[in-house]
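hiii so um. not sure if this is the right channel but i have a protein structure encoded as tokens and i wanna go backwards to a sequence. like what aa goes where. can anyone help
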């Protein structure tokens, strides 16, 4: 198979870097090596590049540049919030509310904090993967210090009712965080419109480089730093700024803001076409996630009785996932599908197909043909014809 002889339908795992971002990063690598903390011209130019990028991220999120902190990615941003909200002198006095379908970058820090004595409520979800806002209200206690619920699920694309949850959080004066790694760049995200106090961004999910992210911290909110050192990033995150990657993320956010509406419409058209073709060609197919309230690029389906991994193994030209890419090698049922009540015989047959800017309708139709053909082949081999 030639290097580019494949169809890439795994954009929720990672995205290729936008060409404009590559060009800007290349210029910084070639021409600008100054430390942003230095007061001479080289440092001033580096500082200016970082601040321009900060403004580009802020413009996409609908906040002020001073409310954006650069991090190494979504996982660090999430850890900064969960660990930064806890008083480590008295972790037992801290209660956090989250959901059972969060990314491991939320679940594992929460479990770590539980080991230290903090208490965490993991809210259950309905069959489409959504949290009931009233369950959030019921879970609130006098010692609740944070509510963290993702904006869009990385596996199913299901969108959470963040605005309703925000209203409840405001009513009780509890900070609200959302892991928006999968949502930013795919749908419009306005942090103030959503009523958020903290929001996490992962650069490589929106055509920026890996190893860079951002955290929105609403003005007036404070977190204990995860990394202690000098006073970079307004004292929120020590360490010399990654100028090259910050520039790449900034440009990626600028491009995303410019084309988000046209991308959203185009992704949904292709996603819906893929869904139509697969449901027409495969008997018994199951949709995982909410049929409407989901990301426009995401389709998660299950072929009951057939392992999703074996389906993809027989289609070497298709790059896709059976679950979240971060734990792809696991043979266990996805924790997201499990929390949704999906039986193992259905959940193990899950395919996560996620579209991006470079996909074409011709690719979508070809991918559908490959999947339908592969399922027919497997069912015939097993003595259970598709039709």
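sure thing!! here u go:
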């Amino acid at each position: 198979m030639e290097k580019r002889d494949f169809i890439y339908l795994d954009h929720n795992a990672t995205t290729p870097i936008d060409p404009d971002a590559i060009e800007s990063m290349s210029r910084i690598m070639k021409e600008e090596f100054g430390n942003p903390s230095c007061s001479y011209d080289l440092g001033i130019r580096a500082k200016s590049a970082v601040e321009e990028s900060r403004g580009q991220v802020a413009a996409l999120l609908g906040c002020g540049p001073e409310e954006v902190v650069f991090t190494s990615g979504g996982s660090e941003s999430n850890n900064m919030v969960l660990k930064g909200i806890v008083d480590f002198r008295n972790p037992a006095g801290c209660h956090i509310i989250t959901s059972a379908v969060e990314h491991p970058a939320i679940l594992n820090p929460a479990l770590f904090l539980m080991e230290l004595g903090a208490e965490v409520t993991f809210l259950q979800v309905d069959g489409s993967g959504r949290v009931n806002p009233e369950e959030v209200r019921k879970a609130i206690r006098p010692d609740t210090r944070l509510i963290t619920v993702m904006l869009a699920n990385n596996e199913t694309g299901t969108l959470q009712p963040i605005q309703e949850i925000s209203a409840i959080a405001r009513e009780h004066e509890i900070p609200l965080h959302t892991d928006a790694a999968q949502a930013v760049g795919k749908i419009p995200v306005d942090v103030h419109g959503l009523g958020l106090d903290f929001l996490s961004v992962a650069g490589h999910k929106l055509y920026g480089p890996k190893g860079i992210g951002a955290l929105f911290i609403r003005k007036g909110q404070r977190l204990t730093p995860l990394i202690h050192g000098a006073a970079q990033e307004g004292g929120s995150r020590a360490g010399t700024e990654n100028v090259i990657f910050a520039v790449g993320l900034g440009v990626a956010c600028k491009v995303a803001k410019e084309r988000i509406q046209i991308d959203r419409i185009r992704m949904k058209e292709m996603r819906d076409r893929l869904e139509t073709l697969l449901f027409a060609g495969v008997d018994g197919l199951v949709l995982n996630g909410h049929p409407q309230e989901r990301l426009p690029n995401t389709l998660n389906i299950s072929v009951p009785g057939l392992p999703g991994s074996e389906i993809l193994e027989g289609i070497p030209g298709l790059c896709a996932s059976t679950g979240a890419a971060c734990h792809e090698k696991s043979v266990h049922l996805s924790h997201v599908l499990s929390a949704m009540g999906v039986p193992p015989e259905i959940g193990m047959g899950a395919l996560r197909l996620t579209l991006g800017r470079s996909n074409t309708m011709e690719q979508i139709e070809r991918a559908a043909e490959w999947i339908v053909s592969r399922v027919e082949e497997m069912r015939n081999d097993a003595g259970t014809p598709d039709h």
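oh and The chain has a mean pLDDT of 95.
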